[in-house]
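Please produce the structure of this protein holding magnesium ion.
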Amino acid sequence: MNETTDLFTREDPIFTNKELLEISHLPEEGRIVGRDDEIKQLANVVNPAIFGQSPSNVLIYGKTGTGKSLCAKYVSQQLIDTAAEESVSADAAYVDCAQDTTETQTVQTIASTLNEPDRTDINIPDKGISTATYYKRLWNILDQRHDVVLIILDEIDKLEDDSILMQLSRAGEAGKISSCKIGVIGISNKIKYKDRMDERVKSSLCEREYVFPPYDANQLDRIMRARSDAFREGVLEDGVIPRTAALAAREHGDARKAIDILRYAGEIAQSTGATTVSEDFVNQARKRAETDRFRELIRGSTPHSRYVLQALTILSLDNSEQESFRTSNIYDVYEQICRQ
Ligand SMILES: Nc1ncnc2c1ncn2[C@@H]1O[C@H](COP(=O)(O)OP(=O)(O)OP(=O)(O)O)[C@@H](O)[C@H]1O
Ligand SMILES: [Mg+2]
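Below is the modeled complex.
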């Protein structure tokens, strides 16, 4: 017998199509569940683009994992496809403002996404030109190449200031662009975000606002079932999806968490050599999802919030019997960490 047949398994015993459960995966229409109304509303807002008019600007709010990014991307893609059928050149630029926090980074990302250097003969370097030059090149690209563009500013509350919003929402009025129309879709999970916006930006950016509610257990159940073909047939035990849905609904109605737990449960089955995914794995997977969530939260926080957290961790490890610490104690440790 060939030894390698013993050493390796040739087929994944649990998953057949694991990509369906990856968070970056953009599900197709049939797998988007429970957001028909929201998708229709968003489509209405951007619809004028197809007959050459300006789309309205819109702000989408909602807690984490409620499908905001998904629906915005989905509707933009649908718009691009439908516009193309009508010989209208539409495009979309997606900006993750948690990554591109400054005005310059944001305008750079938008310009380089929408640019086709072979056709426009415009170069958008990663750095080395002024913000004003990026803008000039962006306006130029827009008028040369596009009838309409949607600009999705995801996690818009992470932007350092409103300057880019002002520029984008007034580009037409200010005569920066002549033929191209711009629609801005802002997305945030901070419902109070609008309060700190400049009045002028607010009036043009918040023409429409939508709040995406958390999912209930039933919707989460359907979202996961619509992707259950990620697993081999018969691998998921009956109680797994309902249990995962119930856990995720009880916590925050967060679809990302539900999908994460389901994937992890499968991975646990895989690594333990089990042939089916049982409810027991769901409980273990939930703990892992929780850890991941915290890791992400910590990674996304500012350096000094991390130092404070580190100070608190050190204190807790050194005094495991103590349940709370005085702010002054935490501050002392924090100061040492800063000095290091
Ligand atoms: N209605 C839905 N149908 C199918 N999958 C969904 C649905 N809503 C969300 N998902 C999936 O859940 C995950 C999280 O969704 P999404 O990224 O859109 O959330 P979000 O509201 O943007 O969250 P955050 O505020 O954390 O960015 C994604 O993998 C997405 O594909
Ligand atoms: Mg999002």
